[in-house]
Amino acid sequence: MELRKFVAPEFIFGEGARLQAGRYARHLGARKVLLVTDKGVIDAGWAEEIAQCLKKEGLSWEIFADISPNPRAEEAMKGAEIYREEGCNIIVSVGGGSPMDCAKGIGIVTSNKEHVLHFEGVDMVSIPCPPLICIPTTAGTSADVSQFAIITDMERKVKIAIVSKAVVPDIALIDPFTLTTMDSYLTACTGMDALCHAIEAYVSNASSPVTDLNALEAIRLITENLIESINNPLCMKYRDNMMLASLLAGLAFSNASLGAVHAMAHSLGGFLDFPHGEANAILLSHVISFNYDSAPERYDRIGEWMGLKLNNDRKKSICEKIVQLRTDAGITSTLGQKGMKKSDIPQLAYNAIRDACIVTNPKKAEQKDIETIYEQAL
Description:
Blueprint: E1 10-13, H1 21-27, E2 32-36, H2 39-44, H3 46-56, E3 60-64, H4 73-85, E4 90-95, H5 97-112, E5 121-122, E6 132-136, E7 148-153, E8 158-163, E9 171-174, H6 184-203, H7 209-231, H8 236-256, H9 260-272, H10 276-291, H11 296-305, H12 314-328, H13 345-352, H14 367-377
Parallel strand pairs: 1-9, 2-3, 2-4, 4-6, 5-8, 6-9
Antiparallel strand pairs: 7-8
């Protein structure tokens, strides 16, 4: 068996975990907290609730919420400036992937005193970040447990990946109750994002027995609970299972990395400001069709964990199951209907083939292959 490394933060999972934010911040030596969030999370009431948890522990805070759905380098730089000006010494992020990734960028800049884009790539962060507590409010991105931070470079119109143990949060407070304020489409898109994490981690050329266990269980949980969580948004059984699936998928992909789906979705997000989870959902079946012959046994196992009884055309059955799941979840658009033009494809493919996630795709992809997949999803 090949050597494999597995990195995970300390995490607390379960209803009420979010209410431990003040206690854990104090344990990490907090004096003043930069509370990183976004407008949607503020409107849902979660940011204020966390602020009150800090207040109960006698801690002061400054809120930073000027964050786009695809967090931008300039926003991370602005957050770092506020962190310094306000004399903060710890970061608490509450929200989905955007605030958590931005919080990671802020931490990097604060400690390393360089522009956030300087740290693109693997193991480029040399100085540890300030303490970071993450409280996810979506079941999909898993930024709360991963060693990835995805930041948009608006000048180049690309998303960069920063992959480093330095951006693994110190504490993740994973509370399924926060999912009850998500609307049905956000539930669908983040759930499909988690499914992509699990599938790409399982077929990754850097997978391991530990990541496999997490990935397969996440696939089962999402298949069985995503539609139910959309149809019964206040039923905690389904929300619990989706948050657990997101956690397991995050532990899997953080250590096995991802593949062409994410490379292509990152390209769409950077070039067209395309919603990440939606892009993943649309692309997934097309990438599976391309990859299948390079890892048929792995994809067949995925199909089995999705509840399929595979017979003749296994690739077709698995792809049809993916399409059925995202369609039932309400994700029915093509990339073209969401604004991608055929003339965009060469540049999108050029960026995707240079994304860090493409390295661990099970099948080597050339630019022309990526262009073909984009055309199929158009």
